[in-house]
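[job 4471] stage=fold_predict status=RUNNING
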Amino acid sequence: MSSRKIELFVPAITPFTEDLSVDTDRFVAHAKALIANGAHGLAPFGTTSEANSLTVAERKAALEALVDSGIDPAQLIPGTGCCASADTIELSSHATALGCRGVLMLPPFFYKGVSDEGVFDAYAQVINAVGPDLRVYLYHIPQMSGVPITLTLIERLIAAFGDQIAGLKDSSGKWDNTAAVIAAFPQIATYSASESLIPENVAAGGAGCISASLNVNPTGIRALVEGLNGSDHVALHAQVSAVRSIFEGLPLIPAIKAAVAAQNDDPGFARVRPPFTKLGRAHTDAISEAVRVAGEQTSR
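[job 4471] inference complete, writing structure tokens
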């Protein structure tokens, strides 16, 4: 097993007010609760955060709210990848100036079928513009972005920018790809997007997990990380996998927000921005079960 520190970063949901503006109070309260209940840090403004439904100004203001609330910037890896390089540069410069640990950066994702050369140029443009203090965590989610982060691209970026390429989140759902990244580039921190893969990730030398369901089950997932060598690791893995499997059968982002709303007895957390719609009554039992199973570990 690798001696690398294993960490959990939460792609925290973005709560909205009744008029669908960002609800800063709920956002900060949820963020602090996640850290208090087991998360090592936050990766706000990722997929689960509805980041691509937020403006640049909204993301900057919300990130500042986290830092102003007392959350250590070293615990933050905000998503900054946009289609327009100027927006990515603005968000990445802002996060770096605040002292954030790094940024989680999608490639430009509207145009499909682009070459590794073009994606390299896009990352290079941002890194050169922001400067040497920037630390980039590459975001590989090809089923959504349509633009993969290939091994060849990673190799070229590391050769060009060294330790400014700090890590990668693999949301492809393909363990073989994650394992290949870990094996080829042990110097970067490679995170799985599913807590069910934490045992494999850790054994291979990975860095841990950045998972949507950490919003609901931070205590259970942290218990798994801490108990991988313990006698109850099988039960701990079963608990996190059970919660994960419920969400995999639901519209993910509305379901995560509905579960957080149920846990807080606060329906305000369930609001989503279009094109998402609020979860319907047909999914009530599934959300209740996810909250119940997550609560089993919390109550221990």
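[job 4471] summary: The domain at 7-217 is CATH 3.20.20.70 (TIM Barrel).
[job 4471] exit 0
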